[in-house]
Amino acid sequence: NAGVTQTPKFQVLKTGQSMTLQCAQDMNHEYMSWYRQDPGMGLRLIHYSVGAGITDQGEVPNGYNVSRSTTEDFPLRLLSAAPSQTSVYFCASSPLLGQGYEQYFGPGTRLTVT
Amino acid sequence: ELKVEQNPLFLSMQEGKNYTIYCNYSTTSDRLYWYRQDPGKSLESLFVLLSNGAVKQEGRLMASLDTKARLSTLHITAAVHDLSATYFCAARVPGNQFYFGTGTSLTVIP
Known about the structure:
Oligomer: heterodimer
Mean pLDDT of chain B: 94
Largest interface: A-B, 26 and 22 residues
Radius of gyration of chain A: 13 Å
Number of strands of chain A: 11
């Protein structure tokens, strides 16, 4: 049982490049989400999903796309990277019902855009 | 949009002392979470509070929720060095969006 996994751990991009951050969970959780963490600002929700085929925007969705084709995977795509997207990205999952509704976070991806 | 305010932002406390971190949120929320984050690490779930008057305790940490006042507290009893970390509260609004506070950086000094 690996929990929530994220790849890569570190990434450096040039402005304008695109990339996909991977997130997978093996707990059969319906809910998955992406956050970014910037110094002094806590975590902010980018996109979330309540099940395969269902996604929605969070607080800061601009510049990011997501899809959810399976319960396990929830990739985050940066379409054209900008320096303002330099941040630490966390993926999280949780059940929608029962089990205390606890959110489980992945180890994070540290992204630098130059 | 829900606003979550934590205070204090920075807390330096002596070992053995007690202190409370406060988390205020601006609109109705149906779940309140507390997390711990060590430097360079991910977030670890501490507590999930689901109803008014809920109180949960784990070791030297106790969390409570007052939904009428839109206030949650994280109380630290007899602090030890191992509790040094950043603590976040987060509130969920109906519709599955979560809003985090800016965090409280706790340093416990001998």
